[in-house]
Amino acid sequence: MSIRGHVPLPMDGRDPSHLRGDPITGDRYFSAEFAKKEWDHMWTRIWHIAGRTADIPEAGDFLVHNFMKESVIAVRQEDGTVRAFYNSCGHRGMRMVHDSSSVEAFHCPYHGWKWGIDGVLRHAQDADVDFKAGNPCGKLKLKELRCDTWGGFVWYSMADDSPSLMDFLEPMPELYRNYPMDKAVRVAWYRIEINANWKFVTDNFSESYHTRTAHPQVPPWIDQDVDSARHEMWPKGHGRTVQPMRPSLTDRPEGGGNAMFEAELAKWDIDPAAYATYEDFALQGWLDLKAAKQRLWREKGYLHYEHMDDEEITDSPHTVMFPNVTISFLPDNLILFRSEPHATDPEKCYFDLWCMAFPVEGQTEVQSIMAGMKPLREVAECEHRVFDGGRGVPELAGQIVYQDMELAEAMQAGMHSRGYTDAYLSDQETRIRFFHEVLNDWIEGRQGR
């Protein structure tokens, strides 16, 4: 059976009977030995995002993705395809490039060897006179990695025998086929170092149980009540929480009004004062909003709604793709969160925030949700920051993502306590233990073969 197209029915993400009960012990978050197991059995076998296809539109345009101690180049070819190579000169291993750019050939700064964008050696100093084995040009090639694209992203895998990208991501490509992801514009781009293990980010985005406490700004625009959301997970570790983008009936704004939802209704020609009760305003208003969006999307320039269904144009399927990529699929925005481990310290990670928006006719700026109001244009440079207790990203203060980073650093400290032995989870947090069990499956060889 499937819920749409060829998407298999998910497991109930609030049903602990799907779990084995593997403990979530503190050492997973600080042990160098456990981090080594993750590298050996999981990180070197999964698919990683190198960057966005929009960043490399022309032949010779390339991305550099540094992951722990590895560095990978993804470069657009003359035929329009994208290929990936280790960022390591085939002569003596020199790292050739450090920042994404565009080239006719990759030029090693140590001895001057030049490699074509197809990975083939084009030039070597003294090539005809000083190599007893013969001129290496045209013979040597950079070591290539598997490379593919989906969702407007360039992906690569270090393993030759791991699943294909579509197999690895199943069922995400089919589930989100209605979103024109490759047309989204990245309007904010941060890479933030935080004092926490990378897994805290996936833990955090695998549940919404914390949002009522940690994110009081959420209830006016997303219904986080326990029985309003749908929690789903699939065998490969991917999962999501689908929440209605309507006011919570439990956590109502003080004073009785809700300016945010009122403005959304008015934008779609719905009178927010037409509802007799707050319940009607939230529930019937949400249904009226669905109908208005389906009726008026073309007239108002929301062309990305063309293939989206009623749920997609009004709700928030907050989606974790195993192991470390989360995308919030909002009606008008995509927000990508990614955590990557520090190269040497398991108690640090890099937290990536990419705020993307679908272009709407007549708009010149957009509300990026996590990073505030931004011009509607592609951001070309990444902002590298250190969280530093929040001092490193003052412009994000008060945003949901800022609050999450504060929580991650405090949780990391708690993992060292002798008072913590395992998590005692609510049903809403089932997907946290499921994530750790799938991670265990990779480490123990039961996944990714």
Can you offer a commentary on this structure?
This protein has nine helices and 23 strands. The model has no long low-confidence stretch (mean pLDDT 95). The two termini are 25 Å apart. 20% of the residues lie in helices and 26% in strands. It has a nine-stranded mixed beta sheet. The chain has 449 residues and is α+β, with helices and mostly antiparallel strands. The chain has helices at residues 32-43, 165-169, 172-175, 199-205, 211-214, 259-267, 278-296, 400-414, 430-443; strands spanning 2-4, 7-8, 11-12, 47-52, 61-67, 70-76, 82-86, 101-102, 105-107, 114-116, 121-123, 144-150, 153-157, 185-194, 230-233, 239-244, 315-321, 325-329, 333-341, 349-357, 365-367, 373-375, 383-386. The chain is globular and about 90 Å long.
Major sheet: 9 strands, mixed
List unreliable stretches of 5+ residues. none
Strand content: 25-35%
Euclidean distance between termini CA atoms:
25 Å
**How many beta-strand elements?**
23
Average pLDDT figure: 95
Question: What is the gist of this entry?
Answer:
The protein has 449 residues and is an alpha+beta fold. The protein has helices at 32-43, 165-169, 172-175, 199-205, 211-214, 259-267, 278-296, 400-414, 430-443, and strands spanning 2-4, 7-8, 11-12, 47-52, 61-67, 70-76, 82-86, 101-102, 105-107, 114-116, 121-123, 144-150, 153-157, 185-194, 230-233, 239-244, 315-321, 325-329, 333-341, 349-357, 365-367, 373-375, 383-386. Strand 9 and strand 10 form a beta hairpin.
